[in-house]
Amino acid sequence: MSVTAIWALIALAGIPGGILAGYFLRKTWAVREAQSAEAKASVVIDEAKAKERELLIKAKDQAIKIIDDVKKEEAARRQELAHLQTRMEKRESLFDGKLLELEAEKKTIADKSVKLDEVKAEVIKIKEDQFQKLEKIAELSRDDAKRVLMDNTESRMKEELLSRIRKIQQLGTEEVEAEARKILSTAVQRVASNHSTETSTTVVDLPSEDMKGRIIGKEGRNIKALEQLTGVELIIDETPDSIVISGFNPVRRHLAKRVLEKLMVDGRIHPGRIEETIEQVKKEMANDMKKAGEEAAYEVGVAGLDPKLLQLLGRMKYRTSYGQNQLRHCIEVGLLSGAIAEELGANVAVAKKGGLLHDIGKAIDHEVQGGHPQLGYEIMKKYNLPEEVAYMSIAHHEDSPKTIEGCVVKAADAVSGARPGARKGTYENYVQRLDELESAAKSFPGVDRAYAIQAGREMRVFVKPEQIDDYAAVKLAHDIAQKIESEMQYPGEIKVTVIREKRVIEYAR
Q1: Last residue of a domain, one of 398, 418, 438
Q2: Which strand (E) or helix (H) includes residue 110?
Q3: I want to staple 232 with a disulfide (CB 3.0 to 4.6 A). Which of 124, 210, 247, 294 is the partner?
Q4: What is the enclosing helix (H) or strand (E) of 325?
């Protein structure tokens, strides 16, 4: 047997032994490990039990503390509740006492009310008995006695009341008139715009009678062309060396006048030349109107107006009212309005602009249907003027303007028209106004006679003394003044004097 085989046999014989040795070694190691783990587990369990005992002790201590705190809070709440209950009992006791007192007072008041009703009934009965005795003694009923008493009182107090009314009216009128006179006089002195009275030109002077024939032309061709192109009527009569221009539009009348004057200077009068001259004069007048409007705005101190509005304002240069040139009137109203507004503390800019343009509607009222106040308002609104300025066109014809600037423009308009020499009227208009004044006064009952004196500035009214007493005379003067103010148009003011006179005549023989 070889050596290798021997070693192989030895190896095969040693394998089971090695396995048995490894098994016993592993088992021994496992037992030792198990014993070690049990020991550690036992230690951990002991430690956990110790911590558990500590936690239980702490929890018991905490619970005991919480229970003590709760007991203390409960005791405090019980004490507070006891205090509140005590207070409520005291209040309830006081309330019961007050309630008893109120019941007692209520009963006392009820008893007094019953007694007062009894006393009142007794007083009323005594009063009725007294009235019956008085009526029996006086032989008058209560209403009759009251009427007699009132009549006697009125008759005694009438003179005193009348004198007091007169005194109050006189004092109020004097104060208002003095203040108004001061403001207006200051404004007029500051403006001081002198101007002469102008009238619309309707008569053209001719160099000779032969010129009439040349103006008429062959078969009337020249005069027909003039009338058709200018829109006026030429009246050629027996009046020497003059032609009358008739038409409602003052601008057209002035156009015709200037055309005739240019034709007479030129000497060539025929339809073609007439048409050329009319176009030339229209351009000249348009420039004159624009220039006049600009100068008027500059004189019053108004800026920022639309050029077309200034053109319309310049048209007023060729219009007159009662002989007063309307452009000069507008300028004067603008200046007066500014001065018065400054005195009163009103809006000076609105017053000036509104015063200058208050009659702007008269520039087109011959061409457009409607009154000049409404037309003027529409024109100013068209050119984007503020409402307070456009309102001035209407305000100066209202009885009571809505704004202080409206009152200022109305006053300035009246001052400008009422200036001595500013306007002139015809004899027929003057007589008609006097008749209207006298008729207005005679329309009241009890008026005997009425006279308009001092060119219509004063009314003297004589009343029937048996129908109008002193108190009624005061009322009559006020009513007549109100009627004249509401129904008539006049410059300035009219003084109304009511005269009550009773004459008793007897003869001794």
Answers
A1: 418
A2: helix 3-138
A3: 247
A4: strand 324-325
Q: Does residue 104 form part of some domain? A: no
Pairing state between β 242-246 and 233-235? antiparallel
Chain-centroid distance of CA 357 in Å reads: 21
CB 346 within 8 A of CB 395: no
- Please check the confidence at residue 169 and state whether its pLDDT lies above 70: no
Which one-letter DSSP state was computed for residue 496?
A: E
Between vectors from CA 358 to CA 354 and to CA 362, what angle results, nearest 5°? 155
Residue 467, classed as helix, strand or coil, is coil
Total residue count of the chain as it appears in this document: 509
Whether residue 367 sits in one domain with residue 473: no
**Domain limits at 407?**
203-418
405 in Cβ contact with 392 (< 8 Å): yes
337 shares its domain with 459: no
Q: What is the CA radius of gyration of the chain?
A: 58
What is the spatial distance between Cα 355 and Cα 402, in angstroms, rounded to a whole number?
Answer: 16
CATH number, domain containing residue 492: 3.30.300.20
pLDDT digits (tens, 9 = 90+) for 410-420: 888 888 776 55
Q: Which of 418, 447, 475 is the last residue of a domain?
A: 418
Task: Give the tens place of pLDDT for each residue, 233-282.
Answer: 888 877 787 888 887 777 788 888 888 888 888 888 888 888 888 899 88
- Tell me what the pLDDT averaged over the chain comes to: 80
Mark whether 412 and 445 lie in a shared domain. no
343-to-189, 196, 332, 351, 403 alpha-carbon distances in Å: 13, 27, 17, 12, 16
> Please, what is the angle between helix 142-191 and helix 470-487, to 10°?
40
Q: What is the 3-state secondary structure (H, E, C) of 401-465?
A: CCCHHHHHHHHHHHHHHHCCCCCCCCHHHHHHHHHHHHHHHHCCCCEEEEEEECCCCEEEEEECC
Residues 227 and 349 in one domain: yes
For residues 451 and 439, what is the distance between their CA atoms, to the nearest angstrom?
A: 9
For 171-218, what is the HEC assignment?
A: HHHHHHHHHHHHHHHHHHHHHCCCCCCCCCCCEEECCCCHHHHHHHCH
Q: Which residues contact 301 (CB under 8 A, 6 or more apart)?
A: 338, 352
Encoded tokens for 185: 């006089």
Overall number of domains in the chain: 2
Rounded alpha-carbon distances, angstroms, from residue 359 to 48, 233, 417: 116, 27, 13
Query: Is there a single domain that holds both residue 218 and residue 307?
Result: yes
Residue 205 has φ and ψ, to the nearest 5°, of -80, 140
pTM: 0.48
300 is a domain residue:
yes
Q: Which residues pair with 462 in a beta bridge?
A: 449, 499
By the 10 Å C-beta count (0-12 exposed, 13-18 middle, 19+ buried), 170 is classed as exposed
Measure the CA–CA gap between 496 and 459, rounded to whole angstroms: 5
